[in-house]
Specification:
alpha/beta, 5-stranded parallel sheet, about 15% strand, globular
């Protein structure tokens, strides 16, 4: 526990937007922060050197995928994820709960855990709170997520209540089996789109939160207005003394709206996924570079961006790479998209510190940054 602490540096009086510092064994994380997703112990197409140049402070990896390949014991034998992938800054591992529950036709849930068939070869496996903690201990990430039960959207009240209560029972088991020392467990708040269930989950989960807490089960297909309404409801009840992590959310508008509602940490596969299809995030909104309109456009993706991609390459060149299926195209746009989101979070943080967050928010929306 001594290796982890959170400092609240500044808070916007109008909105509750926060700037802070999360101290971890592998370095400090300035919040708000966007965390690139490295599902298989790599952010697709990018190296740790690239991520350091982007100034990513923390990245994610996924317990489910790494359990199946190459196996957590191999990663543990290599010295943990940091040494295995050559990344010396903080790492967070998801519990794999969302991935397992997305395998609707391949899994069976009971109180003990989840039995599932591998999407790779059909082999049979089981995840329980206890063995998920054992897997995450072997992976060695700084922040480990509790094993939770997430329901799809829309879900009936009774089904959502059942999953929320099961998540709480599993959280107790995760806590009793949690890694200690240089690893810290984050509980996950569930409850779907039902405010009474969200509040119950929050109040019970906080008891097990020592260094941070997460909000799961949002951005699962519901309208953004519904997500924002749930966050508005939860904001006054969230703990002040630790970071709040909104799981799986990372479009520019959702980051802005999340920070506005007191969220500190974000992650999403969106920036690299859309990059591989030729879509870029910019300060003026998203653009689809593979479109013909950019065939003779010899300007950078974003004239306001000073990332490596924007300083050296044009939209015409990137369009060419994407349209001939050159991997470098997706790599260069991925670099830009991650740089954009990482630095959006940094700019939001600076605006909070300088008491101009609401003005910053208004300026962003003038340029139609909604994804």
């Amino acid at each position: 526990m001594k290796s982890f602490s959170f400092e609240l540096i500044k808070q916007c009086k109008k909105t509750g937007a926060r700037a802070g510092i999360l101290h971890t064994p592998h370095g400090d994380i300035e919040t708000p922060v966007f965390m690139p997703v490295g599902t298989n112990a790599t952010v697709k197409s990018l190296t740790p050197y690239d991520l350091e140049n982007i100034d990513a402070q923390i990245i994610l990896s996924n317990t489910y995928h790494l359990y199946l390949r190459p196996g957590y014991k191999l990663v543990e034998e290599a010295g943990g994820l940091h040494k295995f992938m050559g990344w010396n800054r903080p790492i967070l591992t998801d519990s794999g709960g969302f991935q397992v529950f997305s395998l609707a036709s391949l899994r069976k849930i009971n109180e003990e855990g989840v039995s599932f068939s591998s999407h790779i070869d059909g082999s049979k496996h089981i995840f329980t709170p206890e063995n998920v903690m054992e897997i995450e201990r072997g992976l060695g990430a700084d922040i480990v997520m509790a094993f939770d039960h997430c329901v799809e959207y829309p879900a009936e009240y009774d089904d959502t209540k059942l999953s929320m209560e099961r998540t709480l029972r599993w959280l107790k088991r995760c806590y009793d089996s949690r890694p200690t020392g240089n690893q810290m467990l984050f509980p996950i708040i569930q409850g779907g789109m039902f405010k009474d269930l969200r509040l119950q989950s929050l109040k019970e989960s906080v008891k097990y939160a020592e260094a941070g807490i997460a909000i799961g089960g949002l951005s699962v297909g519901e309208p953004k207005e519904v997500m924002y309404d749930i966050l508005d409801f939860m904001q006054p009840h969230l703990p002040d003394e630790m970071p709040r992590y909104l799981m799986g959310v990372g479009s520019p508008d959702c980051i802005l709206e999340g920070v506005k509602r007191g969220i500190d940490m974000f992650d999403c596969v969106l920036p690299t996924r859309i990059a591989r299809n030729g879509t870029a995030l910019t300060s003026k909104g998203k653009i689809t570079i593979r479109n013909a309109v950019y065939a003779k456009d010899f300007t950078p993706i974003d004239s306001d961006c000073d990332c490596y991609t924007c300083k050296n390459f044009t939209k015409a060149y990137l369009r060419h790479l994407i349209n001939v299926n050159e991997i470098t195209g997706g790599r260069l746009i991925s670099f830009h998209n991650l740089y954009y989101l990482v630095h959006l979070a940094k700019n939001i943080r600076q605006a909070i510190i300088e008491n101009r967050f609401t003005e910053f928010l208004e300026d962003c929306y003038k340029f139609n940054i909604v994804f």
